[in-house]
Fold this sequence. Notes:
CATH 3.90.470.10; alpha+beta; 5 helices
Amino acid sequence: MGSRKHNKAEELKEAKKSQYFAKLNNCPTSPRKMRLVADMIRGMEVEKALHVLKFSPKEASGRMYKLLRSAIANWEVKNEGARLEDANLYVSEVFVDSGRMLKRIQPAPQGRAHRIRKRSNHVTLFVDDKNIK
């Protein structure tokens, strides 16, 4: 690896240490459905987002709720003794990427077959505090 590439990798690694995030891989929900839930909470305060996800009728909101709790727990590990209420945390970024796709066959009339694509996704959720350091 070249020195510039190595230096850039080290900078990114140091920058990641100050970010608080959680990642969910191969979630068996289509990315389109998960993006609807991600758009609901993007930019919201953490406590409000938890309430929105808890009472949302969408199936994907349960998984997003658990992921948000995980990101909050990661924040608590790095900030020992800090209170969640005083931190003024918000959901800074959420992105949903397409994951693996299971390809299945559905029987169709006249001896044909249709392909069914069972999609999955990867979700990355970042939380940050609004207090300027």
